[in-house]
C-alpha cells in the first residue's frame, strides 16, 4: 500500500494571471484569523522587522483585516480589496521602506514609509496601521518610534505623517515624539525633523 503520510497536494486556484497555492491560502487565512482572535494582552513585547517582497501576501491580509475605518485612516480614502492588492503587488521596494510587528508569523502592525517631498526636500511619508485588537498596547508607539529613527537617523530625511484631527491617539503620539504639527483642513500634518548633522545628501 503506498505511503501517503508525506503527501502534499499541489492544487492551485487559478486566478487570471495569478495562480495561488491552496496550501498557502490556508496558511495565511489561519494567520489572519489567529491575529483577529488572539487573546487580549496588557502589552506587546515582540520584535519589529523590516519587510520585503516575500511579505506581500501577509501585508494584504493584514490590511483587509482592518476595519473599514481603519483602512480609511491608513490610506486617507475608502479602500477595497482590489486596490489594496494592487497597491502591495505593485509596490516599489527600492524606494519604499516597510516595517512589521508580528505575533508568530502574523502581522499585527505595519509601517510604510513612502518617498515624498517636504518644502522642496526629499522626505518619507508614513502610513501606519495596527489591528484593532492590538491597539492601546504600545504597538503603535513602538512602530512610530522605529519609523522616526529609520527616516531621520538612518535615511537622514524628515518623516511626514498625515492624520485626521479625530485620531486623537495618533495626534498625541506625534506630539509626544516631538513633531511639528500643521492643521490642514480636517487633517494634521506632522513633520519629524532629521537628527542634527544628517541630511539626504550626507
Q: Can you give a write-up of this model?
A:
Residues 59-195 form the N-acetyltransferase domain. InterPro entries: Acyl_CoA_acyltransferase, GNAT_dom. This is GNAT family N-acetyltransferase. Pfam families: Acetyltransf_1. The strands form two sheets. The protein has a seven-stranded mixed beta sheet, with helices on both faces. A two-stranded antiparallel ribbon has the order 1-2. It is built from six helices and nine strands. The chain has one domain (41-192): Aminopeptidase, CATH 3.40.630.30. With 202 residues, it is an alpha+beta fold. It starts with 11 loop residues before the first strand and ends in a 10-residue tail after the last strand. Helix 2 (56-64) runs antiparallel to helix 4 (81-89).
How would you write the strand order of the largest sheet?
3-4-5-6-7-9-8
Structural class: alpha+beta
As for the number of domains, it is 1
Q: What is the percentage of strand-forming residues?
A: 25-35%
Report the principal-axis shape: globular
The total strand number stands at 9
Total helical elements: 6
**Mind telling me which CATH architecture this is?**
3-Layer(aba) Sandwich
Order of helices and strands: EEHEHHHEEEHEHEE
Biggest sheet features? 7 strands, mixed
CATH topology: Aminopeptidase
Radius of gyration: 19 Å
CATH homologous group name? Gcn5-related N-acetyltransferase (GNAT)
Can you tell me the CATH class?
Answer: Alpha Beta
Amino acid at each position: 500500500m503506498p505511503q501517503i503520510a508525506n503527501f502534499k497536494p499541489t492544487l492551485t486556484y487559478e486566478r487570471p494571471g495569478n495562480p495561488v497555492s491552496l496550501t498557502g491560502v490556508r496558511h495565511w487565512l489561519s494567520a489572519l484569523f489567529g491575529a483577529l482572535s488572539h487573546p487580549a494582552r496588557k502589552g506587546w513585547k515582540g520584535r519589529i522587522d523590516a519587510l520585503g517582497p516575500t511579505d506581500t501576501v501577509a501585508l494584504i491580509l493584514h490590511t483587509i483585516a482592518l476595519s473599514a475605518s481603519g483602512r480609511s485612516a491608513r490610506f486617507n480614502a475608502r479602500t477595497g480589496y482590489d486596490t489594496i492588492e494592487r497597491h502591495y503587488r505593485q509596490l516599489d521596494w527600492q524606494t519604499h521602506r516597510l516595517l512589521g510587528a508580528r505575533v508568530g508569523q502574523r502581522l499585527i502592525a505595519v509601517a510604510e514609509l513612502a518617498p515624498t517631498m517636504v518644502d522642496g526636500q526629499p522626505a518619507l511619508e508614513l502610513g501606519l496601521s495596527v489591528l484593532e485588537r492590538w491597539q492601546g498596547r504600545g504597538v503603535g508607539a513602538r512602530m512610530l518610534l522605529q519609523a522616526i529613527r529609520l527616516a531621520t537617523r538612518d535615511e537622514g530625511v524628515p518623516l511626514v505623517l498625515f492624520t485626521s484631527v479625530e485620531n486623537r491617539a495618533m495626534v498625541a503620539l506625534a506630539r509626544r515624539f516631538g513633531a511639528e504639527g500643521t492643521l490642514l483642513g480636517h487633517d494634521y500634518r506632522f513633520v519629524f525633523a532629521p537628527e542634527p548633522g544628517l541630511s539626504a545628501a550626507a
